[in-house]
C-alpha cells in the first residue's frame, strides 16, 4: 500500500500566488497492473509557465510539472526498479505510469553530473534556451544578444550558449547578486535593471550599435524599450512574459509597429515542445556535452 502526497490547485490565481491557492492531499495509490511502474519523485520543477498554464486546470487537480523520479516497483521490463526517468507527473511524491511518456536519462550521463539537471540545463529549460536562441533567433558568431531575466533557469543557459557561439551577450537581472552570477557565467555586460537610472541609456551604452537578437523572458515595458534598439533584420524570440503574469491591471501597449516595420524585425513566440524526435535528442546531447566540458574545466 503506497500513499502519495500531492499539491493540488485549491483555487485559481488572482494576482500573485499565495499558500491559499494550494492544498496538500494524501491519496492511496492502486496496485500496479502489468506494464506499469511506480515512481518516487527525486526532484520537481516549479516554473513560471505554470502561473499561466494552471488556468487550464480544474480546481482540485494536481499541479502540473516535470520531475526526475526513480522506479521503485516495476511490472514493465523496459523500466526495471532503480531506473531514473524524467516524468510529467506533477507536484506529487509518488505516481503510477504505463511507461509511454517516460524518458530515461541519456546512457552517457556521468555520475559526476547531478540528475536534477535533467529538469534544468539538460532538460526543458536548457532546451528552451537552445531552440529559442539557435532556431528562432538563428544566432551567428559576432552578433550581439540581449537577454532579460538573464539569471533565470532559461536566461542563464541562453547567455552561455551565445558565448559558445561567439556572440557578445548583454544580460539584465533583478539584483546585484544575480549580476555577479551573470559575470561568472561569462556575460560581457550585466546590469541590475531595478537600480539603473535609465534602462534605455544602459542598453545603448552596453551596445551602441544595437542588438541582433533579443531573447525575451519578461515582456511588458522592458520589451518596449529594447525593441527600438534592435538592428535592422533583428530577431526576437518571445519565450515568456513574467512581468505580466501576476498583473491584475490591463497590459501595457505593445511595441511601436514602426520599429518592427522599418527595422524589418522578426518576432516569434515559441513553446519548447515544438521540437521532438531527432532534433530534440541532438539538443540534449549537445547540452550534456557542454555541461560535461564545463564541469571538467572547473575540476582542472
TrEMBL record:
Superkingdom of origin: Eukaryota
Domain (Enoyl reductase (ER)): residue spans on this chain: 15-261
Record keyword Lipoprotein present: no
Entry keywords, A to Z: Acetylation, Cytoplasm, Fatty acid metabolism, Hydroxylation, Lipid metabolism, NADP, Oxidoreductase, Phosphoprotein, Prostaglandin metabolism
InterPro entries attached to this UniProt entry: ADH-like_C (IPR013149), ADH_N_2 (IPR041694), ER (IPR020843), GroES-like_sf (IPR011032), MDR_fam (IPR045010), NAD(P)-bd_dom_sf (IPR036291), PTGR1 (IPR014190)
Matches recorded under CDD domains: leukotriene_B4_DH_like
Protein location: Cytoplasm
Record-level Gene Ontology MF annotations: 15-oxoprostaglandin 13-reductase [NAD(P)+] activity; 2-alkenal reductase (NADPH) activity
One Gene Ontology CC term in the entry: cytoplasm
EC number(s) reported in the record: 1.3.1.48, 1.3.1.74
Chief place of localization: cytoplasm
Pfam families the record matches: ADH_N_2, ADH_zinc_N
GO terms (BP aspect): prostaglandin metabolic process
Subunit structure: Monomer or homodimer.
Record-given protein name: Prostaglandin reductase 1
Organism: Ursus americanus
Gene name as annotated: PTGR1
Amino acid at each position: 500500500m503506497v500513499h502519495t502526497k500531492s499539491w493540488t490547485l485549491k483555487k485559481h490565481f488572482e494576482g500573485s500566488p499565495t499558500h491559499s491557492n494550494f492544498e496538500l492531499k494524501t491519496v492511496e495509490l492502486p496496485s500496479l497492473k502489468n506494464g506499469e511502474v511506480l515512481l518516487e519523485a527525486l526532484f520537481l520543477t516549479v516554473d513560471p509557465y505554470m502561473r499561466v498554464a494552471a488556468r487550464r486546470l480544474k480546481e482540485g487537480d494536481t499541479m502540473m510539472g516535470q520531475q526526475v523520479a526513480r522506479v521503485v516497483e516495476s511490472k514493465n521490463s523496459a523500466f526495471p526498479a532503480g531506473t531514473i526517468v524524467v516524468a510529467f507527473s506533477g507536484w506529487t511524491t509518488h505516481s503510477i505510469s504505463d511507461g509511454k511518456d517516460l524518458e530515461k536519462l541519456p546512457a552517457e550521463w556521468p555520475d559526476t553530473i547531478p540528475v536534477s539537471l535533467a529538469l534544468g540545463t539538460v532538460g526543458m529549460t536548457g532546451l528552451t534556451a537552445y531552440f529559442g536562441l539557435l532556431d528562432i533567433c538563428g544566432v551567428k558568431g559576432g552578433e550581439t544578444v540581449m537577454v532579460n531575466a538573464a539569471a533565470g533557469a532559461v536566461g542563464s543557459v541562453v547567455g552561455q550558449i551565445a558565448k559558445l557561439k561567439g556572440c557578445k551577450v548583454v544580460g539584465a537581472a533583478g539584483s546585484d547578486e544575480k549580476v555577479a552570477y551573470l559575470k561568472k557565467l561569462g556575460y560581457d555586460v550585466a546590469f541590475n535593471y531595478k537600480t539603473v537610472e535609465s534602462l534605455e541609456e544602459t542598453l545603448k551604452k552596453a551596445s551602441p550599435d544595437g542588438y541582433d537578437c533579443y531573447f525575451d523572458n519578461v515582456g511588458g515595458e522592458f520589451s518596449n524599450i529594447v525593441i527600438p534598439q534592435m538592428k535592422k533584420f533583428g530577431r526576437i524570440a518571445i519565450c515568456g512574459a513574467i512581468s505580466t503574469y501576476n498583473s491584475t491591471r490591463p497590459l501595457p501597449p505593445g511595441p511601436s509597429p514602426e520599429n518592427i516595420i522599418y527595422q524589418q524585425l522578426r518576432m516569434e513566440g515559441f513553446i519548447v515542445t515544438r521540437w521532438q524526435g531527432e532534433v530534440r535528442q541532438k539538443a540534449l546531447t549537445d547540452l550534456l556535452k557542454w555541461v560535461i566540458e564545463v564541469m571538467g574545466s572547473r575540476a582542472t
